[in-house]
Amino acid sequence: MESLQQLVDSIDYIEKNLDGDLHIEQIATVSCMSKFHYQRMFHMLTGFTVGEYIRNRRLTKSAEELLQSNTKVIDVALKYGYETPESFSKAFRKIHGISPSTARKKSQLLKAFPKLSFQIQIKGDVEMEYKIMEKEAFQVIGKGIQTSTVSGENNRNITAFWNESNSNGFSEALAENCGPLGLIGVCTDFDQQQENMTYFIGAEKQTETYPNEWQELEIPKATWAIFPVKGAMPEAMVKVWERIFSEWFPSTGYEHAEGPELEVYLSDGDPNSDDYYSEVWIPIMTK
């Protein structure tokens, strides 16, 4: 479980530098992970982006300082990375619901986001099946949405996107053009600075003729770790995603390679059935 301990070390590093410069490249170096792998690991394990976590901790510490000292608001703002009192006040109000100056008054209700901690356990009571496969680049056709990754908004938006696609005939039209992989959900274009990503519902391209509103997306050549998912959607899929990052990556010599992640729906069965079969594909590289 070395990588989880390294994640703990990175949290300690963040905590010691909340009042200084924090760069994701340096934080990832502390964790001995690539920048991309660290950000995906962090988000999957905590539900927060790295930027969201740092912002919440800084606004927690700034509230404590406003209550416990006479430091000027502008000085607190600068200390915790805000260039102007206005930008600090806007972020502070979004979290705490009141302005920094109001927070100085006693008996005000404030929010505290505690420092993250991880209880490192060796689970291993239920084995994880997987296989490693290389695949050449291929094309996917379909439609995509851009969604924020803050506070789990991506999960809500992706579920809504699937529901809409299943009800308006889009999924059915895609199924008529499916290659051997069936329907594919693609998680791609992760932008941790802007805290957003793209989710694409598509199928492996089998024809040059498709509706004008559909888009084409290339999935690059990669080595994939492929995990079977057995059970009703979306619960079974979510559980496997969690185990990949909390159990599989920490116990293997692999890390996430920068590139899209795939949810592959091979089965023609009922997605609500307990025996429904699908897969998660993760691009990997050796550490």
Automatic annotation (TrEMBL):
Q: Which SMART domains match?
A: AraC_E_bind, HTH_ARAC
- Write down the InterPro entries for this protein, in alphabetical order: AraC_E-bd, GyrI-like, Homeodomain-like_sf, HTH_AraC, HTH_AraC-typ_CS, MarA-like, Reg_factor_effector_dom_sf, Tscrpt_reg_AraC-type_HTH
GO molecular function (one): DNA-binding transcription factor activity
Sequence ranges assigned to domain HTH araC/xylS-type in this UniProt record: 8-106
Membrane-spanning residues: none
User: What SUPFAM superfamilies does the record point to?
Assistant: Homeodomain-like (SSF46689), Probable bacterial effector-binding domain (SSF55136)
What Gene3D superfamilies does its record include? Homeodomain-like, Regulatory factor, effector binding domain
> Keywords assigned by UniProt?
DNA-binding, Transcription, Transcription regulation
Q: What is this protein called?
A: AraC family transcriptional regulator
